[in-house]
Specification:
alpha+beta, Glutamine Phosphoribosylpyrophosphate, subunit 1, domain 1, 2 domains, eight-stranded mixed beta sheet, four-stranded antiparallel beta sheet, 10 helices, 12 strands, 38% helix, binds aspartic acid
Length: 355
């Protein structure tokens, strides 16, 4: 009787231990459940994108890559990945596409070379990283992320940034990698234009005719996302502006101008005439209006893009995500390549003004 009682007690004890161990395994293996909705929004540049000059074939190429970029970023967010992973994934896909003015296919500077700018900022701790005028980095957004994570600095430029890249294990590519015939012809045409006229002559080369719908397009790429932890990240990458000179750097790598993120308000990525975006501190101004005025992300974007920038005669646009995972965009040019997936999982891909 006594021994039966003892073996029963032993059995119950072993069962209890098994339950505790099993439960621990279950708990630690279970993915973190979060109610925080995720969202992502991207742009591929704003400017004079003329619908009547764009072929159906080119339009679907743009739409396809914008869709692929948001899907890639959103999949990372849905699986519990961070917003910075999602932003880097979406931006590097666009950097690798010749359709956009970032990475491969970026615009030429006056000397016929490519100089790239990029930045990233995370809203959880206001940490940020940026690179400017790099010539041999295949994906500048990835180097910007390394500056943010692995250096005590915020912005590195030129050969110093490339030395840092090598120390971080990046392999360098030749500047020739980035050059495309379409962009070379664009530079040639701008340099050949009559200085007395403000208008570019009609394009004659077939490649220029094919892409004439966006000859004045500025073309930066950017992404903003919020992850399941409620962390917002914004990133921007660009080749700058065709025919730029004297080591010109635009707004894209300037934190507060082309890129800004703060979990308490919003994240913004901008595209447009960089000189004005720097002077108007566009990305930070929008987040500050959300934080201090308590207005919606859409209202803050519109105040800065449709009023402040228009008053300065500056063209361009922004995309953003706020702390409640609302997405919004605003632009004052004819078009802006843009796409997003909102907190309800609803997606959109747009190029022109839609009413
Ligand atoms: N903002 C970029 C720059 O000024 C250009 C662009 O958005 O396309 O460098």
């Amino acid at each position: 009787m006594n021994s039966t009682y003892r073996s029963m007690a032993l059995l119950i004890k072993s069962l209890l231990i098994m339950l505790i161990v099993f439960d621990t395994v279950l708990v630690s293996a279970a993915p973190e459940i979060s109610n925080q909705p995720v969202a992502i929004i991207i742009h591929g540049g704003a400017g004079t994108i003329k619908r009547e000059l764009m072929s159906d074939e080119i339009e679907s190429e743009y739409r396809a890559i914008l869709k692929e970029a948001i899907t890639r970023g959103h999949t990372i967010l849905r699986k519990g990945g961070s917003s910075s992973e999602a932003v880097v994934a979406a931006i590097s896909l666009m950097e690798d596409s010749p359709l956009f003015n970032a990475g491969y296919g970026a615009v030429f500077n006056h000397q016929g070379d490519i100089e790239l700018d990029a930045s990233i900022m995370q809203g959880s701790d206001l940490n940020a990283g940026a690179v400017a005028s790099v010539r041999r980095i295949k994906n500048p957004i990835k180097l910007a992320r390394s500056v943010m994570k692995a250096s005590p600095h915020v912005m590195l430029a030129g050969s110093g940034a490339e030395l840092f890249a090598q120390q971080q294990g990046f392999s360098l590519v030749s500047n020739e990698y980035f050059k495309t015939e379409r962009r070379r012809l664009q530079l040639e045409r701008i340099i050949n234009q009559q200085t007395s006229s403000n208008h570019l002559p009609k394009p004659v080369h077939p490649l220029l005719v094919k892409y004439q719908f966006d000859e004045k397009k500025l073309g930066t790429v950017g992404a903003v996302a919020i992850d399941q932890q409620g962390n917002i990240t914004a990133g921007t990458s660009t080749g700058g502006m065709t025919n730029k000179r004297f080591g010109r750097i635009g707004d894209a790598p300037v934190i507060g101008a082309g890129t800004y993120a703060d979990n308490n308000s919003c994240g913004i990525s901008a595209t447009g005439h960089g000189e004005y975006f720097i002077r108007a501190a566009v990305a930070h101004d929008i987040c500050a209006r959300v934080a201090y005025k308590g207005i919606s992300l859409q209202a803050a974007q519109d105040e800065v893009i449709q009023i402040k920038l228009v008053n300065m005669n500056a063209s361009g646009g922004v995309v953003g995500v706020d702390k409640d995972a609302n997405i919004a965009f605003s632009f004052n040019s004819l078009g802006m390549y843009r796409a997003g997936i909102d907190k309800h999982g609803k997606s959109f891909v747009q190029i022109f003004q839609e009413h």
